Amino acid sequence: MLLFVFRRVVGAVPVLWVIATVVFFLVRFVPGGPFDHERTLPESVKAQLNAHYGLDRPLAAQYGQYLLNLLRGDLGPSYKYPGWAVNELVWERAQVSLELGFWGLLVAVGLGIPAGALAAMRPGSWLDRGLTGLATLGICVPTFVLGPLLVLAFALKLGWFHALGWGGAGDRVLPALALGLAFAAPVARLTRGSVLEVRSQDYMRTARAKGLGESRVYFVHGLRNALVPVVTYLGPAAAGLVSGSFVIESMFNIPGLGKLFVSSAFNREYTMICGTVLFYAVALLALNIAVDVLMVWLNPRARAGDK
Amino acid sequence: MKPSCVNDTPAVATPCHGSPWRQAWRRLSQNRAALASLAFVALVGVACFVLPYFLPYGYVSQDRMLGPVPPCAQHWLGTDILGRDLLARLLQGGQVSLQVGLIATLVSMCIGVAYGLVAGWYSGRAGALMMHGVDVLYALPFTLFVILLTVVFGQEIGWIYVAIGAVSWLTMARIVRNQVCVLKTQPFVEASLCLGQTPLCIMTRHLLPNLAGTIIIYATLTVPSVMLTEAFISFLGLGVKAPMTSWGLLIKEGADVMEEFPWLLFFPSCLFSATLFALNFLGDGLRDALDPRSTSTQKEIKE
Hints:
The structure holds 2 protein chains of 2 kinds.
Chain A: H1 2-29, H2 43-52, H3 59-71, H4 86-121, H5 126-140, H6 143-157, H7 173-199, H8 202-209, H9 214-252, H10 257-267, H11 270-298
Helix pairs in contact in A: 1-11, 4-5, 4-7, 4-9, 4-11, 5-7, 6-7, 6-9, 7-9, 8-9, 9-11, 10-11
Chain B: H1 20-30, H2 32-50, H3 86-121, H4 125-138, H5 142-152, H6 157-166, H7 170-183, H8 187-194, H9 199-235, H10 247-256, H11 263-290, H12 296-302
Helix pairs in contact in B: 1-11, 2-3, 2-11, 3-4, 3-6, 3-7, 3-9, 3-10, 5-6, 7-9, 8-9, 9-10, 9-11, 10-11
């Protein structure tokens, strides 16, 4: 198992290198530099700034320096906030985004899996129809439609939560719901379909035949196997969670990484763009590896590909 | 975001009456939900591209004295803060959103099909490497790249189309590749090889027609997902620029003032969600019609 994790981590390194390289050259080949927006800057000052940050050196030298710094875990200085390192700024914002993502994922899994499992218990019943209908609806209503509706209902009309901000614990509820519900719907549908499929498997009959209780058959033998496709889905879903968090952060005015990324892209803040993209990439890759590990735990047969 | 219900069985022609396309149409026309969806999408499309010529208001014409009014006889869906007719703006936004859906899908289709064909044909080490690349790309934060591209290339509509298309071809490539791997072993491919046809010729002349059904199905399912991406980018204020508009931008503008003028959020949200809903249903229906073996949705519903 350790070897499996180790190999996945090693395999992620070239991916990160490709991302780092693509972003590095992408941002430098487009018109406009990090100091072009401040119009008041005289040419000489701008030249000095560029020299200070090493932006006047040949591209190859910059690239080499950048990779060396990355190896040491240093993302470089921030241009916009002098005196700050990108590491500090990214980490500060990332904590907020990671927390939001965690709650969102919790909502998606915590609502989606029980709903799907419940619906699959009695297929065709009104409960099943209702839940399936809700899930279909949930798949088609995007985050940025659901979010404002939640705010309108629970913040502005009922006044239970704040419409904006990221202060107390109550401020976590609406963003987490808005983010998580969009993913709870597909999770519920997948769980339902896969539980239905598992129900007709031979080993379920065997489990019943040897006299196990219905709940044990359902949860231990059925659900555990049924969760494999759901867990597989969580990998790609994580990427969607990132884009969803962008919308949520902008909607609820949450000081997360998404806002930092968008503003740095506008300002051509080379170091910050690379830093945020790399952070997201590392987070996603880590989550994907975690999903793979979970898969192996759920279904030892998945280890077949890892000979 | 959406579960990609990938089914790997290729649609090998079944011995029946009528051409396969005719059979598919017959199956589709029996599926009422899919037909209704088709009608709805067609209606929205026609309305967006034709109706603006008959409206008394343009999508930019302002009436600041009027300001925002709720739906009334003059303005069926009301007006926004600048007194612009919401119906006209909704139709204009629909033009942009539907165009994005079509063009970005076309772009992603071209890349995905070409990539999948090549990776499937050279299924040895080269193909495996290509598909490994796709697996890696699946895990990447693509939205970041779309945002980066749209920001740095100045929010040109055309560029947004291409950028979205360029990052949504992965599923298509995977599906086409799986199909090609199966089709490759069929006698007609061997026959073509014996006749000395080049791989390029076999791919385009013989494999592509066999793949058409699958490609259509997944292209249809790609349309709502790229429309969603565009709306998402516009919602963040990175998409189309004012006074041009799209459904995502309209939803954003509506969300900003939803407490005072709820209709500005309500109508765009409903229309957008309904269109996505219909497109998804249409895609599922097409899958059942063109590829009757993969009745994933049917199974899910009937069970």
